[in-house]
Amino acid sequence: MRAQIEIGQDSGGGAVHVDVEELLATRLLVQGNSGSGKSHLLRRLLEQSAQMVQQVVIDPEGDFVSLAKEYGHIVIEGGSYTSREIEALAGRIRQHRASVVLSLDDLEVEQQIRCAALFLTAMFDAPREHWFPALVVVDEAQMFAPAAAGEMAEDTRRMTLTAMTNLMCRGRKRGLAGIVATQRLAKLAKNVAAEASNFLMGRTFLDIDMQRAADLLGMDRKQAERIRDLQCGHFLGLGPAVSRKPVAVKIGSVTTGGKNAASGLVPLPGLSTEGMEALLHDSLAEEAAAPQPQRPAPPPRPAMEDLADTIAHAQDDDAIPAAADRDGPETPAAPPPPDGSVEQVLAEMAREEGATFQSLASLFRSFAIRCRERRVPSAHIDMAQFRRLFAHASAGLERLDPSRRAAVEQLAQGVDDDVLAPFLAIAAAAAEGRNAPDEEELARVYGSSSPGRIRRLLDHLEKTGLITVREDFGGERTITVPGLEEFAS
């Protein structure tokens, strides 16, 4: 017995079915201009097959999260997790056969593309024992499999094209059946579109897209005019899972909805011209002069363990730990360095604007002069010692109480001189239970104005095991320092 679902009715009122088992083997391409009903079609397909097969939805606009309430899909907010966690979640989804919606609407476009590419690649690379059948729906597929590079970085384009090509070309043997939806066939990579054997073509107006759609449906140029005249929610279908001959389909109703704004007409307010003008200008100057409202704090990041447990429906022993940003309890401030000491001279120098951007020789000469002026003994300090002492002062170690400062200095003993100051700044914040310094503060301590150099610095510190960096796709970064966990708790 074949597993068939009804997606709508033909022009004669007869039911049009999709064979889900055949769809798993042959894949599907959906095309139509904005407003043609692509999302409605995908939603109908997902709702009707929800109890038959595992479903994975790549959702760049957050339109399909409503499936969670009615059909039990798990929503994964892509911006809340690091790349490693996204890959781990993809593996668990394959292992436990969970139906999920990867919502990417809280990310920038290139972040959406990278997140989806990592997710799809990890699903594709799952071990053979987890190759269960699954429908993988990719909405707005022209973003993830572009025909041209556009403005995205070349490495991002290669990553996402590889992931989408693997899904459509080699996914069948791994149980993955790609369903891709696009507004324009001309913008979709040909090697991705060519792998689909089933087609549902909605309204389109551009000649190049209309002709490509007609070619896929086996229609001549004159018949292609039908595609331009299709109404919203009407599609032409063809393929082994739909129909052996082109068939016109009016997509049936759905029970869940997206978050699109209403497209119908709404009555205008019944105000006179004078009343509307007064309403627009009332207290306008005061509103413009008021300070800009602060952006609301982001919602708490869902714990990785909780989501993993939901996917597995049981406690998992190897749950991935989630590090949350938090401010620790306030600690008593350390006493200031005594007057007339080397520490005080260094602290004053470090507080001066632009001090960290000066050369080491210039700083050491200024230090020696200041010590002589204040009659502070400094002859025992050479330039190498001064460099490390100045790094301590630039990082603000004098603020720490003795126990915390001793722990930080112990960790810093083997750190190279050229990266000592930023490491100490990170470690001092960790010891006080504060969030790690931002890139601007690290750049000041490091004596650099290059954001790329700071990112390379963090990569170097992580590779050497001095810090652990966690950055989610939303750009939120958490830095922890191994060895200072007791102070951060």
Automatic annotation (TrEMBL):
Residues 24-214 form the AAA+ ATPase domain. It comes from the Bacteria. Keywords: ATP-binding, Nucleotide-binding. The keyword Nucleotide-binding applies. It holds the Pfam family DUF87. InterPro entries: AAA+_ATPase (IPR003593), ATPase_Atu1862_pred (IPR014588), HerA-like (IPR008571), HerA_central (IPR002789), P-loop_NTPase (IPR027417). This is ATP-binding protein. It comes from Aurantiacibacter xanthus. The lineage of its organism: Bacteria, Pseudomonadati, Pseudomonadota, Alphaproteobacteria, Sphingomonadales.
